[in-house]
């Protein structure tokens, strides 16, 4: 069973700052990793698939990178609507534990 | 635009069976390109994949739920369904249905979710 570990659990930042979120797989998953954003009371929204491809309608400030076991989601400049919980997902499809991006 | 909508009871008694249906509109569930799945989220917790099915009925389940779980598909109604037996309070969660795409099985379309509470 492949386990995904996300870090940090919480990221406290101000609008305009850069956010860097990490997801580590317990074994190689090539580039089969997706990222989601979830806001309170809403379903998750797909941001990135296949490690680095932005989903339809996702702003360019969101970018993904990595392969094998180490992956990163970067938000280049945080907008007020970006404060949310972010999950990574591997093909089983199981999820990491999430990273909460909160306003500092 | 593809839409998914969960339906079913919001309250289930302990030891009984939780049954939910996901209705797909704006597209066909019979496409060979996709799997269709269930994901849940306990209050204040993370996302847990439950299981998935394709149009021909091929299923795969979360091993931790497999003994209690059945997922089925009805292509004539463009629906797929979830049955989880012998529920306990630990099964209280928001249940989402979603479409899985690609080899990475990413979920590109989601229902809004339905809260199911297990309580007597």
Give the DSSP E fraction of chain A (strand runs of 2 or more residues).
over 45%
Major beta sheet summary of chain B = 7 strands, mixed
- In terms of per-residue confidence, which ranges of chain A show pLDDT below 50 for 5 or more consecutive residues? none
- Got a strand count of chain A? 10
Structural class of chain A: mainly beta
Oligomer: heterodimer
What share of residues of chain A is helical? under 10%
* Strand/helix succession of chain A: EEEEEEEEEE
Rg of chain B:
14 Å
Shape type of chain A: globular
The end-to-end span of chain A amounts to 36 Å
Question: Largest sheet of chain A, order of strands side by side?
Answer: 2-10-9-4-5-6
Name the overall outline of chain B. globular
Q: What does it look like?
A:
The complex is a heterodimer of chains A (104) and B (120). The model of chain A has no long low-confidence stretch (mean pLDDT 97). Chain A has no helices and ten strands. Chain A has a six-stranded mixed sheet, with no helix packed on it. In chain A, strands 1-3-8-7 form a four-stranded antiparallel sheet, with no helix packed on it. Chain A is 0% helix and 47% strand. Chain A is globular and about 35 Å long. With 120 residues, chain B is mostly beta strands. Classes of the chains: A mainly beta (104), B mainly beta (120). Chains A and B meet through strand 4 and strand 5 of A and strand 5, strand 9 and strand 10 of B.
What's this model, at a glance?
The complex is a heterodimer of chains A (104) and B (120). Chain A has 104 residues and is mostly beta strands.
Q: Which helices and strands appear, and what pairs or packs with what?
A:
The complex is a heterodimer of chains A (104) and B (120).
Chain A: E1 4-7, E2 10-13, E3 19-25, E4 34-38, E5 45-49, E6 53-54, E7 62-67, E8 70-75, E9 85-89, E10 99-103
Chain B: E1 3-7, E2 11-12, E3 18-25, E4 34-41, E5 47-54, E6 59-61, E7 69-74, E8 79-84, E9 93-101, E10 106-110, E11 114-118
Parallel strand pairs in B: 2-11
Antiparallel strand pairs in B: 1-3, 3-8, 4-5, 4-9, 5-6, 7-8, 9-10, 9-11
């Amino acid at each position: 069973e492949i386990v995904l570990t996300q870090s940090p659990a919480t990221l406290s930042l101000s609008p305009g700052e850069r956010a860097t979120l990490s997801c580590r797989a317990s074994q190689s998953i090539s580039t089969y990793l997706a990222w989601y954003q979830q806001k309170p009371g809403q379903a998750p929204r797909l941001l990135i698939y296949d490690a680095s491809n932005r989903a339809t309608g996702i702003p360019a400030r969101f970018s993904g990178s990595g392969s094998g076991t180490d992956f990163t989601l970067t938000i280049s400049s945080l907008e007020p609507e970006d404060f949310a919980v972010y999950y990574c997902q591997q093909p089983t499809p199981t999820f990491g534990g999430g990273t909460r991006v909160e306003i500092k | 635009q593809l839409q998914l909508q969960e339906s079913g009871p919001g309250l289930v008694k302990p030891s009984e069976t939780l049954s939910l249906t996901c209705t797909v509109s704006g597209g066909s569930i019979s496409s060979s390109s996709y799997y269709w799945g269930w994901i849940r989220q306990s209050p204040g917790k993370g996302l847990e994949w439950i299981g998935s099915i394709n149009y021909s009925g091929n299923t795969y389940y979360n091993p931790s739920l497999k003994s209690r779980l059945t997922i089925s598909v009805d292509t004539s109604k463009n629906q797929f369904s979830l049955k989880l037996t012998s529920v306990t309070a630990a099964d209280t969660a928001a249940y989402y249905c979603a479409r899985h795409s690609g080899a990475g099985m990413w979920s590109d379309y989601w229902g809004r979710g339905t809260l199911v509470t297990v309580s007597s």
